[in-house]
Amino acid sequence: MAFKHPESVLVLIHTPDQVLLLQRKDNPDFWQSVTGSLEPGESRMQAAARELEEETGLRLDKGLALVETGHKVRFEIYPRWRHRYRPGVTHNWEYEFHLCVPEPLEVCLSEHLAQAWLPLEQARHQASSWTNKEAIDRLINIRNSGEETYGRS
Description:
The protein is an alpha+beta fold and 153 residues long. The protein is 24% helix and 33% strand. It contains three helices and seven strands; from the N terminus they run E-E-E-E-H-E-E-E-H-H. Strand 2 (18-24) and strand 3 form a beta hairpin.
């Protein structure tokens, strides 16, 4: 088995007032946005587009605009998952992307049990990881400030 690269993407799929969260198969109490590690030779954008399609069936060739926000966070890899990485690797960089859609979409799940479109504050509460919660916080701040949002191409 090849070791995982300690860089990943988080794709926050949202409407102007809702966020899509996915329920993990391996831990039904864990709800998250689309996430995944970069593969060898893959750019962050390529990884985000690949993970988006793998986990939801959504393709960027359908007029959807995937935007890298410029936010990245470094977090400690849980000890139970470190065997997936080269010896000595303890931290991962996660890069944030947004995909704004005009209304909730039904997605085709492959790696998750269920999906839920939730109001922003509820999604922030439901999200299991602190990095996902912070990404939703940033989206809430964008909404509250009236800044231009990411949208369709």
